[in-house]
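Reply to dn_fold:

You asked what the input looked like. This is it:
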Amino acid sequence: MSCISLRRNIPLMSTMRDAQIAWVKAVAAYKGWSLSRWAKRTRMGDGESSLAPSTLTRFVNDPDATHELMDATIVALAESAGVEPMVLPGSRRPSNLAEPDAAPYTANAVADDYVREQVEAFKRRGNAFSPMVMRTRALEHAGYLPGDVLIVDLNAKPQPDDVVCAQVYDWSGDRAETVIRIMQSPYLVAASSDSKLLKPLVVDDEAVIIKGVVVHSMRPRRVAVAA
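and this is what came back:
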């Protein structure tokens, strides 16, 4: 999965799979697309290959399927349909949902050609590498600033003191927030002057789930960030 904030403005589901199916069906109906057509319009990490139609048709229609869609797939589907990931078309972002620490990287996220080339190189290595753009100062004292581009390895096993990408879920309010924090098991901690970010988060694999490990970071030229 890519590490994205899955803001789900849909009825609370028993599993993330249920929520994903509800979102896929709603977007397909909103666009008037078949699942196969939507898949063929969706470009994956290398920008050249489209999503296999069976990825969606089997996910939605196969009664024996139990898997979830990768977050990278959700992001690609959302981009091709022109909607937000896991937000029903026409719905609005909850006003009390915190801003995510990082957002998915897009091709126009920065104007630095070197950074774009490095991101594409990681994407060619497979969907396990998810590029993100840091948005907050949650780890400013650890050297990560807003605008930095992070590469998250979704297959890496977190070790003590690793910088990790996690999702914090509020199941009662049906919301989720992406955070970038330092792993100090069983806690995730910030390194910031912002007192609102300093409360440790307990990794319980229910309300707080680690999605991947930050294995590389890049800082675009300041002129590129401002462009």
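The chain has a mean pLDDT of 82.
Hope that clears it up.
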